[in-house]
Amino acid sequence: MIYFAYDGSLNGDWVSRYAIRFASHTEERKLILVHIRDQSVSAEVLEEKIDRINRECGDFGIRLSSDIRPVEKNVTDSLLNAIPAGPDSVVVCGTRIHSPKKAYLAGTISENLLRRGRFPVLALRVVQPGLLGNPRDLLVALAGHPRGFAAAWTFFQFFLRDVEKVHLLRVMPVSLFRFPYLSLKKTRSLRRDGARYLSQVAEEIYSARGAFEFHLDTHIVVAEDWVGEILTQASKLKSRFLLLGATEQPWLRRLVRRGQLERLLGQVPCDAGIYRGL
Amino acid sequence: MTRGRQIQELSPGEVFQFLGSRPQGLHAQEVEERLREVGRNTVEMRDRWKWLRSLVKQFTNFFTILLIVSSLICFIADHIQPGESMNVLGWALLAVSLLNALFSFIQEFRAERAMEALKKFLPQKVLVNRSGRNEQVLAEELVPGDLLILTEGDRIPADSRLVRCEELVVNNAPLTGESEPVLLTDQPVSKRLNESNNIAFAGCSILKGTGEAVVFATGLRTEFGKVAHLSQALRRTVSPLERETAHMVRVLTLIAVSMGFSFFLYGVISGRSLWVNLVFMMGIIVANVPEGLLPTFTLSLAIASLRMAKKNALVKGLNAVEALGAVQTICTDKTGTLTLNQLTITHLADPLSGNDVADVKRRHLLFEQALCASSVRMTEGAFSGDPLDVAVAREYRDEGGDFNTSVAGIKKHFAFDLEKRRAAGVFVDGTRRFFAVKGAWEALRPFVSALERDNSTRLDVNESILEKVDETVHALAAGGLRVIAVAFRPLSAGEDLEADQDDLEKGLTLAGFLGVEDPLRKDVPAAVAKCHRAGIEVLMVTGDHPDTALSVAKKCGLVAPDDSTGHQVLPGDLLERMKEEELILRLEEGVRVFARTTPEQKMKIISALKSMEKVVAMTGDGVNDAPALKAADVGIAMGRQGTDVARAAAQIILLDDNFASIVSGVEEGRTIFSNIRKFTNYVLVSNGPEILPYLIYILLPVPLALTVIQILSIDLGTDIIPSMALGQEPPAPEIMERPPRGQEGGLLTPSLIIHSYLFLGLLEAFWSMTLFFAVLIHGGWKFGQDLGTADPLYRSATGIALSTILLMQIGNLAGRRFAFRSGLDSGLWKNKLLFVGILIQVIFSWAVLYWPPLGKILWTGPVSPGIYLAAWFGIPLIFGLDYLRKRIKRGVE
Question: In a 10 Å sphere around its CB, with 0-12 CB exposed, 13-18 middle and 19+ buried, how is residue B440 labelled?
Answer without folding.
Answer: middle
